[in-house]
Amino acid sequence: MDIFLSKAVLDFFIAFGIVLGGAMLGGIGAVVSLQPPTDTMVEIADRIKIWALAAAVGGTIDPMRVIESNMLGGNLSPAIKQILYLVFAFLGAHMGSELVKWVCGK
Question: Could you tell me the keywords of this UniProt record (predicted)?
């Protein structure tokens, strides 16, 4: 259980960091290109969420294959773990997006 929890927390913070970092660097790019940074940051945070989720769980479709093969084979434990990894990564990406919206006043 210790390995599962550490990977879940890691997935959460990877997704959180991708959204937060991408929005912040996008805001810097908006300032350089003379665009409103807060609008750009909120837009980037919303658009990058799905990519943060994919990157946090490994960057490929392999987690979906693990879920499919284990569900069809009757092994529910590995499939449930993969689903929970996806949930933790989604929560991290969503919290990063909400933090950007909060900081930008949206």
Answer: Membrane, Transmembrane, Transmembrane helix
Beta strands in the chain (DSSP E): none
Q: How many helices (H) and strands (E) does the chain have?
A: 4, 0
C-alpha torsion 32→35→38→40, nearest 10: -90
Exposed / middle / buried, residue 82 (Cβ in 10 Å: 0-12, 13-18, 19+):
buried
Residue with tokens 């990519």: 51
Residues 6 or more apart from 102 whose CB is under 8 A from it?
none
Which portions of the chain are predicted below pLDDT 70?
1, 59-64, 67, 70-71, 75-76
